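The methods section describes the discrete structure representation at length, but only in general terms. Since the whole study asks how a given chain folds, the encoding of that fold should be made plain. An entry of this sort, consisting of the sequence and the corresponding backbone structure tokens, reads as follows:

. . .
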Amino acid sequence: MVLTLYHFPPSAPSRGALLAAHAVGVNVDVQVLNLFKKEQLKSDFVKINPQHTVPTLVDGEFVVWESSAIAAYLVNQYGKDDTLYPKDLMKKALVDQRLQFNCTMLYPRVRAICFPILYQDEIEMHDEQKAPVDEALGFLDVYLDGNDFVCGDKLTIADCLLVASVATIAAIGWDLTSYANVYSWVSRCALEIPNYVEVNQKGADEFGKAVKTKMESG
């Protein structure tokens, strides 16, 4: 049975889930919904996911959304082993912490800058919005100190989701060279995760272009 992933390439959470699918090695039928055109509000999709959010994964009769939940499900259900999401409780807790860091700190701070530009006619990024992003990148840089990946020496689903957020940050104009550990980690992820450029970089670039176009048009 082929899994279906409802996906919007510019969306960092959506890209993170698709990166996880590629890391697991599971085939998914990607159905693109253009959030800029509000295609997620179509009635047939709302029936699948009443929150009308992407990513959304459909596996037979089972439906799950939220990128962290999708990534964990894919490993637990289809992973050849548990490297990407360990069963060992301490290792798993560390992955969970990094996932929570992404969804409660890093990504929301990026979204707080970009949402007003894309949807509320804001035309610039304000310093008071930039500082929290820099703080979060600083934390991530510490996590990576002495480590190849965010939870140690092996890639996990936390890397997939975090690198999607960080690629978005770079695409909207951040200079990641100020965060040496983060900068080198992105390169490692690009080598380690299959189809990284196609799945993550192109979508991040598309998002960055949309944000910059809005700012320039103002």
